Known about the structure:
- Two copies of one chain form a homodimer.
- By secondary structure, the first copy, chain A, is mainly alpha-helical.
- Chain A has a single domain, classed as Arc Repressor Mutant, subunit A, CATH 1.10.10.
- Helix content of chain A is about 55%, strand content about 10%.
- Chain A has six helices and five strands.
- In chain A, strands 3-5-4 form a three-stranded antiparallel beta sheet.
- In chain A, a hairpin with a 7-residue loop joins strand 4 (about 105-110) and strand 5 (about 115-120).
- In chain A, helix 1 (about 35-55) crosses helix 5 and helix 3 (about 80-85) crosses helix 4.
- The radius of gyration of chain A is 21 Å and the shape is globular.
- Chain A starts with a strand and ends in a 7-residue tail after the last helix.
- At the A-B interface, helix 1, helix 2, helix 3, helix 5 and helix 6 of A face helix 1, helix 2, strand 3, helix 3 and helix 5 of B.
- The structure holds a DNA duplex.
Amino acid sequence: MITTVRRRARATAGPTARGDGAGATVGLGMLAELIGYHVRLAQMAVFADFERALGALSLSPGLFGLLVIVEANPGLRQTQLADAARLDRSTLVPALDKLESRDLVERRAAPDDRRSNGLFLTAQGATLLAQAKRAVRAHEKRIAAELGEGDRATLIELLDRLAPGGRRP
Amino acid sequence: MITTVRRRARATAGPTARGDGAGATVGLGMLAELIGYHVRLAQMAVFADFERALGALSLSPGLFGLLVIVEANPGLRQTQLADAARLDRSTLVPALDKLESRDLVERRAAPDDRRSNGLFLTAQGATLLAQAKRAVRAHEKRIAAELGEGDRATLIELLDRLAPGGRRP
DNA sequence: GCCATATTGTTTGACATCAAACGATCCGCG
DNA sequence: CGCGGATCGTTTGATGTCAAACAATATGGC
């Protein structure tokens, strides 16, 4: 059996005159047998729902993750946050700029190291994050509903076996 | 139990004088309970291995996927390829430019529609793809070894439940 | 046949991301 | 002390991605 992808539905017109046979589907070759392919599709679907859940708050999944980690670790340094969020520290700079310009996070000069900034949620940041968490919990419930509790745990366990502890040399 | 991420190992120096307590780990808050988080980590790990496998051929996972789909569907139109690969058709343009400049893929004017191009692998493209497929099969074997055959099937089944058919409105 | 509407590939602009390089600062070793 | 190497946050450049807008072309209703 060959796995396929349905063509994008035509908005109005009927099927176009084309020369490549019946052409109702496009074969994916060996792609459909690759774990990475299925992981990517799942990632896209989950993130799309995630973004939909947070859209009203103008928060992306990435920014939400940063807020969560900062809340859990007040005073965190930027490099530590980058490591925890699996981002390059240069990637973090514009993200924090955005959060700071929206008064959600504050960079405070570290008392013991003039190169470093300590990161803190502002009151406004804490308020928005509380709302965002509610939306995310709803999102997670929606996702988990596709699985059931047992399969959800199984999935996470299997996924973690692919991402070994998060080693980075 | 709180899930954590180890701090980046210091290269040489001992622990820096810091004011935030023992600080051996950074908590992730509710992140570790989200399926999307685990999917993302798995995605990163799998793709890193994928890239390592293909690096010698100067092929990214994305370009490899395009070659596989074109090989399986000679004469495919760009929009169809974009749909099958889950890319925007504007994203495809520079990717095909790259593949064409390397003489791996050819854009041929479609006989029945002067707006469209039919896509074909060149002989060189077919040769390189054959090599790439071998590398990818080795990669897949490596990944699957973390799971075992039964768990691999389970994982794919669960992931597919998260990505419902690939609907796109 | 004509014309409004769609579709195709492309261009352009906005982001997110990584990697390399930089100045400022810190630290250990002599 | 002072100096060399390491680390911090930042800047800059290269990619990869989407979305909106565009000209050329095709389609279908009239």
